[in-house]
Amino acid sequence: MKSILVACGCLLIVLTLLSFVKSARWWIRAADFPRLQIAAAMAVVIGAYPFLHGAEGTWDAIFLITLASALGWQCFRIFPYTIMAPREVLKAAGTADPANSIRLLIANVLMENREANRFLALVQETRPDIILAVETDAWWDKRLCDLDRDYPHSIRQPQENHYGMHLFSKLELASPEVRFLVEEDVPSVRASVRLRSGQWIAFFGVHPRPPEPRTDTEERDAEILIVGRQVKAQSQPAIVAGDLNDVAWSHTTRLFQRISGTLDPRRGRGMFSTFHARYPLFRWPLDHIFHHAPYTLVRLQRLRDIGSDHFPVLAELNYSPSAVGGQEAPAPDLRDQAEAQEKIAEGKSAE
């Protein structure tokens, strides 16, 4: 039993150390995802080891201290996404102004999922102003035509490679476009959205490719950071949403926040883990909503299962320019700017 605990502990330490390695290799970046699970496993080993075998020797002490240090680092990274941490986004004061509010539904529907009725029922129940659906193919394109009556504005990009994307809006859209920022078969969308008050805002929808065998993260990181730069350059207050195939606490996502100057409404409210819907013990937050400082949060909710491997997310934001002074947006330093430029160049040149 002791050898098993030592082997597990050493593996967990190695996985923690991998998160310090600035490499785009898929098997290294995959270690970013299960920080909560790694931390929980470390706590079990730390508790079980002295109870079962004692901790009197020097090597026992070194092993447990190293493991505890790794556990502390994991907790440090995930702590901002717990309810004990300070909130990064203010709660909307009183009753939100309907004219300046926007309700968004973000869903990775899973291309092979054929339970479209469950998703459409959820739309009817939640009544979002904007719907972003990803992994939509030709079959989903036909099923989502049912939304046209209530959502007269749309962007449709069905694809058969798990990277299709559909945007539906009750609100007026201007300059809607599908872009292929890094990879020719991985789209993103951008549009200006007119709130009921007349205020124009910018919306970006993204779904880059995930780290997986034979697919490293150069292209994913580049797309995320290109969008970050475009968001920062926006004169309109922006919202970024989608399945980033990256977790909230990763280096790339935190760099994106600094480059774009956006806030994360999950901070201080919980992880809102959306993937994998089938395996409760192996879930992490892959579906995101970021926004500029002039928004406050009315509500944020992970919704019920729709037959996909992701849970949908519903967020309602209130455009509140007066909130800017109470919400400090992250800002990049020169090192961040240089790193973003390097990652974008690597992503564009990757094969």
Automatic annotation (TrEMBL):
Keywords: Membrane, Transmembrane, Transmembrane helix. Residues 107-310 form the Endonuclease/exonuclease/phosphatase domain. Residues 322-351 are annotated as: Disordered. SUPFAM superfamilies: DNase I-like. InterPro entries: Endo/exonu/phosph_ase_sf (IPR036691), Endo/exonuclease/phosphatase (IPR005135). Residues 333-351 have a biased composition (Basic and acidic residues). The chain crosses the membrane at residues 33-52. It comes from the Bacteria. One of its GO terms (molecular function) is catalytic activity. The keyword Membrane applies. This is Endonuclease/exonuclease/phosphatase domain-containing protein. It comes from Paramesorhizobium deserti.
